[in-house]
């Protein structure tokens, strides 16, 4: 037939428009958008009636942690991610996401020096299980070896299609000094790699943590006090100055404070290529959630620990909402960072394990075992940072912002799909519904036919034993998730297969345009570097 799949009565949403039409899909690609199909075109195809509901380009979650083990864990705090590509990608599909970009991380260990070896190792982890959705990698760089960067960055770009790297201003095992940041940013710029920045001032955090500990303030809640908004405020300003100095475009990951958002806005206003990501937790959690079970012996709140922490109260959330609609935030990602509460590699439950029962464990002995046991005592300094949310990302934005009238459907699509695709070099293969694009789609329920429900973790597909959003009311949920023309999630059931997802090679960012000439004066910034 002419089409493999047709979708009728669709309210197709792009980053700019909404139009009621039908979609024809052939060989995994969008073939056509039309008013209506004739009988002939419909007969041989699978037909989905969207019943007037929103049909959007499939979610692109550009910030997902999978398969990071004890050694390459997100911050050297002893945690290991509990989701691999199997469980993580299934959870993504069930939440309307068709592409995830995950992290492959270099460590300071000499044998992890080669970025190519790191990527190969992570690629093998993905291939070991397969994936329900398409996937790519960002590379986390924690050292400034010029020879490695100069030799390997071009290979990462050309052979692997990896066009983004993440750099840290905090975490002892990952942070770079200012001159190291300049080294890596400079090489990234030469290779058209987008530099992602984790902007927290590591010295402020360490100093405050020491002071808190000296007062016995070690319970999970005090994690927030060790990272007041100024921590992100300082680090965003410093990274903006470093990037401006050498004319490098940057994206701030997981911006969680009104102060951070203001700094980004100011940089954008003077024409700097500064972009920002924010995450669901900053709109749905506050310091109050970290405090919920606050007591010296209860570690339940370790479930809520992430960095940067949620804002102190709802007034910051209001300012962040403005940033969603006015363009300060370029993308909205989950920062899905899965740790279990019931596992020694996860969130400390405060229950000291019997060391003997842990000794037989696969990779824990000696110092590692001792540090795990210390971690189990629950001082916030030792609690792995991060919370899950790849599956709840789109539904939370739908309920909290779209249905609440805070953002338009077009803005929803821009933040969750179109801009991540443009920023990370996937557009227009992904991120839009246009002839020739991959037929990656999320179809919602018609709002008036959906019965709101309260979320329970048991409904989710991640390998995590909690959700920070337990009990929260949702007014819609993805009804169909379609990956390159194949239905992988339908009305509460996973329909896809582990080999459906493919590795995606990416090109350079398509967002950096029209940077103000006045910000490139060689007497003020080092634009002469590139002459
Ligand atoms: O708390 C967080 N954000 N954990 C994930 C690791 C990271 O820094 O993105
Ligand atoms: Zn980070
Ligand atoms: Zn993260
Ligand atoms: Zn272990």
From TrEMBL:
CDD domains: D-HYD
Highest rank taxon of the organism: Eukaryota
Classification via Pfam families: Amidohydro_1
EC number: 3.5.2.2
Post-translational modification: Carbamylation allows a single lysine to coordinate two divalent metal cations.
InterPro entries listed in its UniProt record: Amidohydro-rel, Hydantoinase/dihydroPyrase, Metal-dep_hydrolase_composite, Metal_Hydrolase, Metallo-dep_Hydrolases_sf
Cofactor: Zn(2+)
Keywords tagged on the record: Hydrolase, Metal-binding
Reactions catalysed: 5,6-dihydrouracil + H2O = 3-(carbamoylamino)propanoate + H(+)
Primary enzyme class: hydrolase
Record PTM N6-carboxylysine, positions in chain: 166
Gene Ontology molecular function, alphabetical: dihydropyrimidinase activity; metal ion binding
Amidohydrolase-related domain ranges (all copies): 54-487
Gene Ontology CC terms, in alphabetical order: cytoplasm
PANTHER family named in the record: COLLAPSIN RESPONSE MEDIATOR PROTEIN, HYDRANTOINASE/DIHYDROPYRIMIDINASE FAMILY MEMBER
Similarity section: Belongs to the metallo-dependent hydrolases superfamily. Hydantoinase/dihydropyrimidinase family.
Protein name: dihydropyrimidinase
Organism field: Penicillium chermesinum
């Amino acid at each position: 037939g002419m089409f493999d799949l047709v979708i009728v009565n669709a309210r197709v949403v792009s980053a700019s428009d909404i139009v009621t039409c039908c979609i024809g899909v052939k060989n995994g690609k969008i073939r056509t958008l039309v008013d209506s199909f004739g009988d002939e075109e419909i007969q041989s195809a699978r037909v989905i009636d969207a019943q007037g509901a929103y049909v959007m380009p499939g979610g692109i979650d550009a910030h997902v942690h999978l398969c990071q083990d004890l050694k390459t864990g997100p911050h050297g705090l002893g945690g290991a991610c509990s989701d691999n590509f199997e469980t993580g990608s299934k959870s993504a599909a069930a939440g309307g996401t068709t592409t995830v970009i995950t992290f492959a991380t270099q460590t300071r260990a000499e044998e992890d020096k080669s970025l190519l070896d790191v990527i190969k190792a992570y690629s093998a982890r993905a291939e070991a299980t397969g994936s329900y959705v398409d996937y790519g990698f960002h590379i986390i760089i924690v050292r400034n070896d010029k020879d490695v960067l100069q030799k390997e960055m071009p290979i990462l770009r050309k052979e692997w299609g990896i066009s983004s790297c993440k750099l840290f201003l905090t975490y002892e095992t990952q942070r770079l000094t200012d001159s190291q940041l300049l080294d890596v940013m400079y090489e990234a710029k030469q290779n058209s790699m987008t530099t992602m920045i984790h902007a927290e001032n590591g010295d402020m955090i360490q100093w405050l943590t020491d002071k808190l500990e000296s007062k016995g303030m070690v319970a999970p809640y005090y994690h927030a006090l060790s990272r007041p908004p100024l921590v992100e405020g300082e680090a965003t300003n410093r990274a903006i100055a470093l990037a401006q100095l050498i004319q490098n475009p940057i994206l701030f990951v997981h911006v969680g404070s009104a102060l951070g958002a203001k700094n980004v806005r100011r940089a954008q206003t003077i024409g700097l290529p500064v972009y920002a990501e924010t995450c669901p937790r900053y709109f749905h959690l506050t310091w109050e959630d970290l405090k919920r079970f606050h007591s010296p012996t209860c570690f339940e709140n370790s479930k809520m620990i992430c960095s940067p922490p949620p804002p102190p109260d709802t007034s910051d959330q209001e300012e962040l909402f403005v940033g969603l609609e006015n363009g300060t935030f370029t993308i909205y990602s989950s920062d899905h960072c899965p740790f279990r509460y019931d596992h020694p590699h996860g969130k400390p439950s405060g229950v000291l394990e019997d060391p003997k029962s842990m000794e037989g464990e696969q990779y824990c002995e000696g110092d590692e075992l001792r540090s795990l046991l210390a971690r189990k005592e629950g001082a916030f300094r030792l609690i792995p940072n991060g919370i899950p949310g790849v599956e709840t990302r789109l539904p939370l934005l739908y309920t909290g912002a779209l249905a609440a009238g805070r953002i338009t459907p077009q803005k929803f699509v821009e933040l969750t799909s179109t801009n991540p695709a443009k920023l990370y070099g996937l557009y227009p293969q992904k991120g839009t519904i246009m002839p020739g694009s991959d037929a990656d789609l999320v179809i919602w329920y018609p709002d008036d036919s959906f019965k709101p429900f309260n979320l329970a973790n048991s409904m989710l597909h991640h390998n995590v034993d909690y959700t920070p959003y337990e009990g929260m009311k949702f007014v819609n949920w993805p009804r169909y998730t379609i990956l390159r023309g194949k239905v992988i999630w339908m009305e509460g059931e996973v329909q896809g297969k582990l080999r459906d997802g493919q590795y995606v090679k990416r090109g350079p960012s398509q967002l950096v345009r029209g940077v103000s000439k006045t910000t490139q004066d060689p007497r003020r910034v080092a634009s002469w570097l590139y002459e």
